[in-house]
What does this fold into?
Amino acid sequence: MTDKQRKTIAWTPEQRAQHKAIRDAFREWHPGPEELIASGAAARLGLNVVHSPAQELLRRLKASREAAGLTLADVSARCGIDQPALSRLENGHTQNPTLDTLWRYAAAVGKRLVLSAEDIRDTRAAPSNARRPPPKKAAARKKRTA
It folds into this structure.
């Protein structure tokens, strides 16, 4: 296949409609994985959002382990996770590590796992006021006399 040739994909009409809906939804809006989930767009459009915020944490923990001069055998003995599982964890081959696993691994390398929750910023454009009809003038209220 040359650079100018493209492989033709045979899509069903349903697949074409779904692809168009996804392209239209994200033409002006470029959300991150968390925002896709928080907004409901991932579920509504049938998107399987894969995002692993644990990967940066694991890179830091591996660096801490290496800086402390600990081997995988040392960490395994401390936290009770077998060496192959620790290797898979450190190298990103564990897609969805549990909090318990992360906590045990962090503790074994002398770190405390701290969790927090932050608001997810909505990056969608605000609706334009041009489409709204002008506000109606409020009727003057009569004062009550006692």
The radius of gyration is 26 Å.
